[in-house]
Amino acid sequence: MTNRKRAVRVPAVTALMPMKAHSERVPRKNVRPLCGRPLFHWMMDSLRSSRYITRIVVNSDSDDIGLEAERLGAVYVRRPPHLLGDMVRAHPLIEWDLRETEGEYFVQTHSTNPLLTGGTIDRAIERFFESGEHDSLFSVNEFKTRFYWPDGRPINHYVDREVRSQDLPPIYEENSCLYVFSRSSFATTGRRIGGRPVLFPIDPLEAIDIDEEYQFEVAEALMARRLGVRP
User: Fold this and answer.
1) Domain layout of the chain by residue ranges
2) What whole-number distance in Å separates Cα of residue 152 and Cα of residue 155?
3) Which of 32, 16, 45 is nearest to 219 (CA)?
4) Which end of the chain, C or N, has fewer beta carbons within 10 A?
């Protein structure tokens, strides 16, 4: 008898994508052209290609960004004065979005992950709904290499036992590419990562997050290769 994977029932999911006009390390990165298009257009494409995302909400302090996002099919939520500035963290922004938006299930992404595909987003959503025991999901980078604490103590291996790196227990890095959570989970914990999360490894090439200038250049080179064009 052939084992068949049970179909996953997925309700409507709303995507949240915060963007601000100012960026400290990469000036105006959200609208800076990457392979000929504003950076945030690439993530908009991925979200619009998802099978499960029924609405995209863009939270911004810039009418230029917000109105362009609306032209691409998003709902624009203007940030109130108390959420303006570079020091505002993600959770107050999500709290405001949930106050202004209907729905129970949400995916939060960033425009700074232009290589993340709609297919990966859909697999993450399916993984979240496959098991009822988890209240959230977040994407990670998986590492199998030797890590140490600052004082020289090994984290995931023993210095007196030589183990091949591929046989080491993996360590996971939160890569900020995508988060899946429910309204009720966020209300309980005040965080997008709840108390029982799924760690969802993704392809390292999709996981590039643009925080520094060199990462923008790497992302553009990889996108150009994907498109078959010169950067």
Assistant:
1) 13-146+174-226
2) 9
3) 32
4) N
How would CATH label the architecture of 13-146+174-226?
Alpha-Beta Complex (3.90)
Percent of the chain with pLDDT over 90: 73
**Distance (Å, whole) CA 198 – CA 212:** 28
What are the pLDDT digits (tens) for 33-67?
999 999 999 999 999 999 999 999 999 999 999 99
At residue 5, the pLDDT reads: 53
Q: Which residue has the tokens 């590419």?
A: 177
Closest CA to 149 of 141, 160, 157, 138: 157
Residues 6+ apart with CB under 8 A from 130: 8
CA distance 116 to 110: 10
